[in-house]
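Q: I have 391 residues here and want to know how they pack in 3D. Can you give me a structure?
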Amino acid sequence: MESVYLDHNATTALDSQVLEAMLPWMHTQSGNPTSRHSYGRASRDAVEHARTQVADACGAYPSQVVFTASGTEANNFAVKGLALAKAHTLGGIELNSGLQILSSAIEHPCVSRPALAMQSLGFMPRAIAVNQHGLVDLVKLQEQLVKSTALVSAMLANNETGVIQDLAKIAELARAHGAFVHTDAVQALGKISLNFADLNVHAMTISSHKIHGPQGAAALILDKRIDIQPLLHGGGQEKGLRSGTENVAAIIGFGLACELAVKRLKDFASHTATLRDQFEQGLKVLDVTIFGSQANRLPNTSFFAIHSIEGETLVMALDRKGYAVASGSACSSDSTEPSHVLLAMGVDADTARGAVRVSFGPHNTTEQVAEFLKVLKTEIARLRQLTAIAA
């Protein structure tokens, strides 16, 4: 039986056109982009072309694109760099100990953990509450902003539920209180229309491998007016903001992946929304809870829980049947704790432990969904029977 991949929010297959564009930079001699000879100049030109492609995909200028090696790095760069930049504009952290770093309670750990790490420098990390639909509680945010705040970070689209935030409104509130604003838009790129200017944020994170580009390439889109503190120091690459020799092949792949994602956006959204709706219609007879279904979501994402069945157990059972799904964030798969996203939404721990995420891609079909629902029904019945016997 051919396996079926339903975990596109974790990572995606490398597009054949992207691979073709990358190959010449991987198996023939290419130059370091900082070198002055013809090989180096060719690499520099290729990197700058990719920078333009990335910028065009998210409504930014090429000069606002800072390449990084991962979304995790870009998020760390944003949280640490922006917080320090704000402190410096206010006279230095020594004078402003206690500045808040606010991040939504449903952020990926690569945002929430850097915020916690900044406690050692005198910052005060605080979580912004969300409601039962996974949307930031704007009233609570307004109340928190009364205290001096360096940074507000809220992801545009959640990696687990797919719920999309009203970032422009969040940014409006944060800016009114003098805070910088960052958004992790890794899951949004290629799935919904993305425009840096319209979001009104100071920094935005995007990543290559979520849009059929290579792993090892990402970017922070940055308001050029901010004197952000670099995360990495060294040779001065990326205008001194991210030192380290550029991964030329991966950056070229990222650029083309961005261009292709924009061209395919409408078809992707329509196709995957059809699959998700078909899937969730089939879930209704299986005694499930679908999370975030009353909010605006990514078209390809369904996050649900089956009553009385552990999500991890179901994920492994489905894997044995040839279906790749997830029980939460791929970057936190070593954790046995219930989803922090669902707990923040007020879901009880037992239900949260049963959570399973299905995220569709462009090559999935209605036939695959129909067959998957049959297998899912059979596996649920089998696991419930085993649970009953064990009891």
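Q: Anything worth noting?
A: The mean pLDDT is 95. Residues 4-11+265-390 form a domain with the Aspartate Aminotransferase, domain 1 fold (CATH 3.90.1150.10).
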